[in-house]
Amino acid sequence: MIDKFASVLILSLLFISCNSSLKEPIEITIDQSTLTECATAACPEVLVEYIQYEIDAKKTRALNDSINNFIINSLNLGDPAAAAIATNPNEAIQYFIKDYWRDTSEFPEINEYEAEVIVIENFRSDDLISIEMSQYSYTGGAHGYNSVSFLNVDSKTGEVITNNQFIKDKNALTVLAENKLRENYNLSKTDNINAGVFWFENDTFYLSNAIGISNGNLVIHYNSYEIASYADGSIDIELPLEEAAPFLNYSVKN
């Protein structure tokens, strides 16, 4: 009887373990006011708000690394083709500030630099977590630059999933998204997709790489310059989850 009870208990624990989702992430905020070097010297405005997940497996560590690498690359003022020197968000902020000091020493007339990097968990279901990663930076010139991307994650394993893994029927989702975009910009089904503000390659609509979930919608996000000019800003196609769900491989019921 004891052996039978022990077997049932072990199986129950294994079932719970296999079906448990990632724990809620830790929220971290860093800005220039938290750095000792900025207490005695003028620093650019830097704000980094991000999340980290409890490390309990290699896949979860890889998820945290993906978030950290986004922050590091967003603050890197070096050669974008070369690997960044910083190895974590704190170091990335420090290098951003040092680069600002270097540049202002050579060109005192330049405007102050500014950077903001925000990483938040937008959506969570039993199957899926969707993380939005946005960044804005100004390092001189006529205007700054901002971008948004998404990480979609298997809730149970912590593994980052690709868009090909996330989307079950890309063709059908593409049709749905194009119809929504045409509706938003008053383009008929027979109008050339580039008849208005857009510049899709080969006059053919395509999905962006930035696809995630926010505020009850599947969001397909195009950054500035991706399909339209900077003046036209970024473009979002928002599809209610109940419409998009049939074309996804992961449950979006929360």
TrEMBL record:
Top-level lineage group: Bacteria
Classification via PROSITE patterns: PROKAR_LIPOPROTEIN
Deacetylase PdaC domain span: 57-145
Pfam families, per the entry: DUF3298 (PF11738), PdaC (PF13739)
Domain DUF3298: 168-241
Protein name (database record): DUF3298 domain-containing protein
